[in-house]
Amino acid sequence: MPALQQIRPASHGASIQVRVYAEDPAKNFQPSSGPLTAVEFSPTARVDTWAEVGTEVSSFYDPLVAKILVHAPTRAAAVEKLSAALAETRIAGIETNLEYLRKILANETYRQGGG
User: Fold this and answer.
1) How far is CA 48 from CA 2, 92, 109, in A?
2) Where do the domains of the chain lie?
3) Are 100 and 52 in contact (CB under 8 A)?
4) Sign of CA dihedral 89, 95, 99, 104
5) C-alpha atoms less than 13 angstroms from C-alpha of 16 in its C-beta half-sphere
6) pLDDT 10s per residue in the chain (115 long)?
7) pTM, full prediction
8) SS3 31
9) What backbone torsions phi and psi does residue 85 show, to the nearest 5 degrees?
10) Is 9 exposed, middle or buried (0-12, 13-18, 19+ CB in 10 A)?
């Protein structure tokens, strides 16, 4: 095995992750609880989740519903891929930050990589 100083990892593309929370951005990110009546994620994204139709979301635990991740050759392509994946995502029965995430990805400053 080569010495640690000789290992030069190379980056290959860009990845972006968003976290879908059981929170209502319109109400200062107030927790949202109740049964999930619809849960659909895009097959084009990696989705780490525990949620499925019928799952009862409690307000007593971490509000994380899912992590949605994409990878593409460029940041711009990753933003487009994630935007498309979020457009295909459906979660019903509780309020989530899903629409908030969609708006962030649609924001021109974010798309350009500005701060």
Assistant:
1) 34, 18, 27
2) 13-112
3) no
4) negative
5) 22
6) 888 888 888 889 999 999 999 999 999 999 999 999 999 999 999 999 999 999 999 988 889 999 999 999 999 999 999 999 999 999 999 999 999 999 999 999 999 886 5
7) 0.88
8) strand
9) -65, -40
10) exposed
3-state percent breakdown (helix, strand, coil) of the chain, nearest 5: 30, 30, 40
Give me the CATH topology for the region 13-112: D-amino Acid Aminotransferase; Chain A, domain 1 (3.30.470)
Q: How many CA atoms lie within 13 A of 51 on its CB side?
A: 33
Instruction: State residue 100 phi and psi, 5-degree precision.
Output: -60, -45
CB atoms inside a 10 Å sphere around CB 97: 22
Helix residue ranges, H only, 16-97: 75-88
